[in-house]
Amino acid sequence: MGVAGHNDPLLGDTTCGSLLQQLQVIWDEVGESDEDRDKMLLQLEQECLDVYRRKVDQASSTRARLLQQLANSKSELTRLLSALGELSVSGIPDKTTGTIKEQLAAISPSLELLCRKRDSRVKEFAEVQLQIQTLRGEITGNLQFGEHLETPHVNEDDLSVKKLNEFLFELQALQKEKSNRLHKILEYVSSVHDLCSVLGMDFVGTVTEVHPSLDDSVGVQSKSISDETLSKLSKMVIGLQEEKSKRFAKIQALASQLSDLWNLMDAPVEERQPFHHITCNMSSTLDEVTVPGALALDVIEEAELEVKRLDQLKASRMKDIAFKKQIELEDIYARAHIAIDTSAARDRIMSIIESSSFQPSELLADMENQILKANEEALSRKDILEKVDRWMSACEEESWLEDYSRDDNRYSATRGAHLNLKRAEKARVLVNKIPAIVDTLVAKTRAWEQEHGLPFTYDGVALLAMLDEYKVLRQEKEDEKRRMRDQKKINDQLAAEQEKLFGSKPSPARPQSSRKVAGARANGGGGAVNGTPVRRLSALQSGGRTASRDGRRDAARPVAPVNYVAIAKEDAVSQASSNHTGPCTP
């Protein structure tokens, strides 16, 4: 028997009551007992309770899940706000009323916004921390050349702007440190390049020994900036500078040797020119040597070979070189008016050269030492010799002034008379200074002799003896002048008496010593004065000998003062003979 109502189109609107009525009808038709009916109704009721219980359980589970979801959303919202360092986000409802789903719907937009912000902040943190780790690795040297680091783990519990700024500040400090280190690296690399260029060394091979990234083909930002690289570069620069200093000192010494050898052997310019790139460093400082290859090993070797060749050539020409040095030594002594035995010195040189134990370097060193000592001695005598020259010049002017004063035509309108007049004025001023010049010269000479413990000689004659004799001669001259003035007064008195007795004054004969000054003498030339020879200072004492290169007396030496006493006596005799001419017979 089928169940009624299964195919009823109105079953969708059937209720529990209608279904129970249909069941009663069916039971009535079947003839079910009341007991069976009660059992079936109790079963139906139990089944309904089970269905309701399951639905209630499902609803409770759904509510619990939604409540947990709401709690998680609120907790995540709070955690994100804390991690991002924000107090609140716009759009979050202040009220917590309403159904669970309404509350979830209200929180979801803000939660999604914070999640997006978190993801963006995490990306920023990761990028900054990656740069920081990279820079730290570059500075410490732990990051190998060409190596790339993995993205670091970001702590999502603190994604605040403050924390990000701290990382950014650290990043800026590291970037500044890298910039400074790069600047130092580039300076060192530039120094290594310049030094390698001057020293003739391979720059790339040298600098890549420190680190492969220092090659020019590698970008600036990719170069190693580690402490180890900086230390190695610094040591390399110092080492190259020391090597440059050593080579510079060596090249200067070789250049000096070349120059000395060329000068000794009078090498022509054509022979010196190929080594100009070496000798040009003689007057340069270390920092001025910047020409590529100027201090290369092959250049030094080239100079050493040339010095060796010239040394061998010098040994064969030692005689000429030694005598050239001797001539230089004699010239120094001649200019300093020091008398030496030139013949003995030359004989000594020949005996040394001809000896079996002859060493050219020792002979040249000895002669250089003699020249050095001669220059020192000449320098110590320079001040006194200048005073001697001034004294001799004043004496010559005094001699010229006397000749000029005896010239009767000195005031005539002849050519050059005004020049002689001006010279006479200057000569009188200079002559008045002669006593002071002599006193100063004596004091300086005595001080020199006391300091050096030996007499000061001038062409082999003691200078103090010359000055003493000059003082005696000058005093005799002054005495003679006074006697001549007294004699002139007597002659004038005799002439006045004769005029009274005879009525006329006899005309005196022209003095023999009164002559016209020679043109050359009047214009400053040297020579004899009125026939009286001019003597050399060395002739004041016997035994003096002038040192010169050929052992003969130097004809160009300054002249000593004139023997004024002899001149004065000659003039006095001439004047007296003319004044004592007998009177004419009336």
Short précis:
With 586 residues, this protein is mostly helical. 67% of the residues lie in helices and 1% in strands.
Give the helices and strands, then pairings.
Elements (H helix, E strand, L loop, with lengths): L15 H15 L3 H51 L15 H41 L20 H39 L3 H5 L19 H39 L3 H4 L3 H4 L17 H20 L1 H18 L6 H13 L5 H46 L11 H16 L1 H19 L4 E2 L2 E2 H40 L16 H4 L41 H16 L7
Antiparallel strand pairs: 1-2
Tell me what the structure shows.
67% of the residues lie in helices and 1% in strands. Strands 1-2 form a two-stranded antiparallel ribbon. It contains 17 helices and two strands. It has helices spanning 16-30, 34-84, 100-140, 161-199, 203-207, 227-265, 269-272, 276-279, 297-316, 318-335, 342-354, 360-405, 417-432, 434-452, 463-502, 519-522, 564-579; strands spanning 457-458, 461-462. It is mostly helical and 586 residues long.
